[in-house]
């Protein structure tokens, strides 16, 4: 038993059938769920614990295994291995799976069976990677679905509402991995959440959310602008608040990190060639406008309250939204030196490199020149009786609406016309909808994007200000 992981006596998953005894199988763990506790029906007052994982021993064969037992046993077993490690299982119970019911919640497996592991009868041993065959280890880079069976992010966005609630496969690169957030629900259950931003050739930023510790752990190992993932069976939803499509990792989902497929290799090349572009994700967000529906934003803040709220926000880097009754106190649109219009790439929306005017994001070389369009890109100061917010970004169509002119009209204005335009609303009390949050990159650590800015109805403004908005 010195090296039980290298033994030649394993039963292949393809050969499983019920009633096999003294079985020994080996596989690489490709999926895993969090530990859950259930009231024990046979033993009122106590709880039984369980978690599931999926193992694979060849390209075509993988099965779902569920382990049951006491809390300590299940927690320590679950903690003993991660996705990507190999395990040997001895004496599992082989059960026919009830396809309809189970595949709703668990990964669709090609096998007709599932494994049941009990604390008393089965054994799970974790193998170190040098003990096992390289062939087995390489299975971790093989998606569980056909390599061409996926949606690009652009397809998902283009399909929009028709994909709401659908379970599909996605191939995409990782742009950023958010901090995991831990919270307690109103019925005192613990929860966690982590937001991943994905991208590909067709879409600069797309959110995927994880709600379980195992997928969050997996995501923490991904390298932004390097890792490519094939996520099989993620749920697509239309996010009403952000007015965009998003993906959610569910219990059926199996995520293959850096898949070894032709399609993934093409995407990895794209990622490599475009890596030097240090695009600020927030910038893309405002460009894409996330078209937050403004009437969902109702909290009124003074400048001082907004700063305090940003610092107090528990989900530190997640943005908050609010309304300010304030005025624009700095607006440099009539200075030669201040660049307020920048070119964006028509294909991907990124701001172009100033010097070369070439989009390094979707251009594979200077030959593939894409068309560009000018877009406002301004930083303004907002002031009220409690203070000033510096360098708030006012961009794109929001800037056009605010200034009351298109970017092309603006570009042909004389400096005098620009100065006149500026004084039309500089220091006029406005009702300003903002998105705000802490950011390491922003000046003063606070990043503020203007979503809408219109002259305020003076009566409404004074009523709201005297009501003091939000404490
Ligand atoms: C395995 O199946 C069970 C239900 O039988 C399910 O709860 C579990 O999520 C599945 N395993 C994995 C790794 O998803
Ligand atoms: C497992 O073994 C323990 C101790 O040997 C025993 O108390 C328990 O009832 C057994 N559980 C099952 C499900 O057989
Ligand atoms: C997830 O991890 C957090 C932090 O480590 C922990 O408090 C929580 O109990 C875990 N949840 C589950 C379901 O394992
Ligand atoms: C954004 C907001 O709270 N606006 C309020 C300002 O005051 C008027 C009248 O009191 C309310 O109707 C608005 O809802």
From TrEMBL:
GO terms for molecular function: chromatin binding; single-stranded DNA 3'-5' DNA exonuclease activity; single-stranded DNA binding. It is found in: Chromosome; Cytoplasm; Nucleus. It comes from the Eukaryota. InterPro entries: MEIOB, NA-bd_OB-fold, OB_MEIOB_N. Residues 7-145 form the MEIOB-like N-terminal domain. Its main location: nucleus. One of its GO terms (cellular component) is cytoplasm. Keywords: Chromosome, Cytoplasm, DNA-binding, Exonuclease, Hydrolase, Meiosis, Nuclease, Nucleus. Belongs to the MEIOB family. Component of a multiprotein complex with RPA2 and SPATA22. Interacts with SPATA22. Interacts with the complex BRME1:HSF2BP:BRCA2. PANTHER family: CELL DIVISION CONTROL PROTEIN 24 OB DOMAIN-CONTAINING PROTEIN-RELATED. This is Meiosis-specific with OB domain-containing protein. The gene is MEIOB.
């Amino acid at each position: 038993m010195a090296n039980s992981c290298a033994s030649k006596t394993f039963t292949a998953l393809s050969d499983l059938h019920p009633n096999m005894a003294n079985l020994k199988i080996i596989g690489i763990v490709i999926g895993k769920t969090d530990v859950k506790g259930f009231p024990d029906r046979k033993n009122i007052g106590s709880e039984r614990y369980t978690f599931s994982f999926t193992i694979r021993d060849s390209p075509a064969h993988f099965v779902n295994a569920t382990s049951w037992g006491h809390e300590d046993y299940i927690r320590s077993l679950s903690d003993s291995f991660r996705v990507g490690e190999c395990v040997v299982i001895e004496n599992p119970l082989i059960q026919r799976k009830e396809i309809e019911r189970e595949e709703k919640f668990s990964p669709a497996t090609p096998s007709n069976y599932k494994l049941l592991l009990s604390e008393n009868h089965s054994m799970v041993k974790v193998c170190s990677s040098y003990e096992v065959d390289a062939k087995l280890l390489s299975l971790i880079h093989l998606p569980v679905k056909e390599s061409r069976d996926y949606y690009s992010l652009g397809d998902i966005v283009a399909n929009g509402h028709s994909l709401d609630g659908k379970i599909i496969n996605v191939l995409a690169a990782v742009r950023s991995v958010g901090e995991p957030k831990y919270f307690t629900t109103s019925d005192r259950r613990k929860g966690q959440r982590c937001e991943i931003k994905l991208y590909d050739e067709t879409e600069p930023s797309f959110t995927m959310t994880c709600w379980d510790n195992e997928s969050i752990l997996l995501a923490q190992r991904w390298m932004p602008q390097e890792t490519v993932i094939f996520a099989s069976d993620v749920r697509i939803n239309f996010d009403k608040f952000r007015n965009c499509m998003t993906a959610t990792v569910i219990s059926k989902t199996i995520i293959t990190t850096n898949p070894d497929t032709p399609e993934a290799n093409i995407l990895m090349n794209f990622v490599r060639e475009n890596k030097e572009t240090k695009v600020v994700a927030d910038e893309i967000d405002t460009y894409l406008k996330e078209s937050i529906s403004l009437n969902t934003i109702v909290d009124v803040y003074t400048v001082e309250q907004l700063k305090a709220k940003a610092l107090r926000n528990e989900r530190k880097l997640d943005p908050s939204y609010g309304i300010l009754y304030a005025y624009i106190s700095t607006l440099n649109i009539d200075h030669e030196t201040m660049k307020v219009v920048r070119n964006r790439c028509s294909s991907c929306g990124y701001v172009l490199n100033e010097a070369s005017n070439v989009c390094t994001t979707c251009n594979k070389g200077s030959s593939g020149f894409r068309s560009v369009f000018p877009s406002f890109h301004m930083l303004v100061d907002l002031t009220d009786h409690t203070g000033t917010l510096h360098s708030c970004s006012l961009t794109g169509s929001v800037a056009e609406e605010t200034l009351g002119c298109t970017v092309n009209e603006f570009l042909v204005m004389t400096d005098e016309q620009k100065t006149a335009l500026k004084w039309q609303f500089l220091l006029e009390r406005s009702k300003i909808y903002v998105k705000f949050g802490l950011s390491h990159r922003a000046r003063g650590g606070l990043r503020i994007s203007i979503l809408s800015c219109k002259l305020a109805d003076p009566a409404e403004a004074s009523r709201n200000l005297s009501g003091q908005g939000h404490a």
